Amino acid sequence: MEQKEVFISIRSVHGYDQPDSETLDFMTDGVMSIDENGCRLSYMESEVTGMPGTLTTFKVSDDGVVIDREGFVTSSMQFREGTKDAFLYTTPYGTARLGIDTRKVRNDLGAGGGKLEIDYVVNMEHLVAMRNRFIIDVKEQGAI
After folding, report:
1. Percent composition of the chain: helix, strand, coil (DSSP 3-state, to 5)
2. Secondary structure tally for the chain: helices H, strands E
């Protein structure tokens, strides 16, 4: 499995279908690898995202996307279009059980980079629901 140094641009929109939505843009260096099972994209979070010291890994396959976080925040979220999933979100302040309902996954990642979009609804204890969206652009370092 070949690893490439990449530049990652992430736009995270919380409540994107609401008038008071919040958008966070984050740019960082990362590592991308592709094999017969799909694509793996890893980077370190920072103070900007509120998760310093957390390694985030996107595992992208034909089945969907798994986002694993390890460090300051620990979680494993599974996004498969048209499905619901539950996961534990652990921080130094405590653990919460969250649910996600994946509306859409669009994957155009390839050997030279590309784009990944995830549209989902997150809830806590089936009560609070907010529609969110990740838009991730990946470019090979040197191709920028």
Report:
1. 0, 70, 25
2. 0, 10
Question: What's the domain range around 120?
Answer: 2-140
C-beta of residue 138 within 8 angstroms of C-beta of residue 109? yes
| Closest to 35 measured CA to CA, from 79, 78, 80, 2 | 2
User: Which CATH number is 134's domain given?
Assistant: 2.40.128.20
Rounded to the nearest 10°, the torsion over CA 110, 114, 120, 122 is 100
pTM of the model: 0.89
Model confidence over 111-136: pLDDT tens digits? 889 999 999 999 987 676 889 999 99
Domain count, the chain: 1
Return the closest-CA partner of residue 121 out of 98, 96, 100: 100
Q: What are phi and psi of 47, to 5 degrees?
A: -60, -35
Chain centroid to CA 54: how far?
13
Residues forming a β-bridge with 97: 88
